[in-house]
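ugh ok fine here u go
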Amino acid sequence: MNKPLRILVAAALLAPAFASAQTVTTTTTPLGVPASLEVTRLAPQLIAFAGGQANFDSLVNGLALGTPVTLVSTLPTGQIQTVTFTPQGTLTATQIAQTLEATRQGLISRGVGAPTAQQVAVSLTGGALPTPSGNVQVTATLPTTSQPANAAAGATGAGLSPVTTTTSPVVGSPSPSALMQGQTGAGAGSTTPPSPAQIIQNQRGSNISDTPNAGNISNTPSPTTNSTTTGTATGTTTGTTAAPAATAPATTAPAASGGSSPFAAPVR
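structure:
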């Protein structure tokens, strides 16, 4: 066997080995590793961006598998905001990390550093984005093949929005305006406690009047009590002021004999 033929035979025998090695090196995601763990390794800052681990897991799994995403956040008012949307198609861990990081940077550029669930969802799917300066129309950061059906079709309007947002009221805490106006919100099925004004009214009851009953101490002050002293005896009168006691006119005793009186007639 000549040398060129031996080279060709050796190459034919080594070809399957090279093909197998190439197949192994192109595998990027190890089997059995959750997508959320892979994205965390690539971009750990995205956990805080999503609003916590539960939101992050729901977001990554939804984008990786094309399943519904549910995001929950607490608003500054104390209300709970819940947002849902369903992406189409699937993304790799690398694509998810790149998409979420682009979304995070876009919100930061608009002055939103800690986005709500609604702001994250709208940035991903496109639409009217609430910002500190008002609503801004934004383009979806998700690839077209992964956008929800309505967003991918270019649907507009509240009824056709791919994002569903619900906000629950704060339980057990009436608004300041309700407290000021005495609104109780204590109707049937209400969870808002009565206002302080209503509590006081309930404690009084419907038959209790503010007017004191006879025999009880009244809120009206008693008449002023005046005392008049005459001599060594003291008398007390109530309701009226006693007239002043009559005082006899003062008399001047006659001057002693032999003396002069300042009131004596002048001597002529």
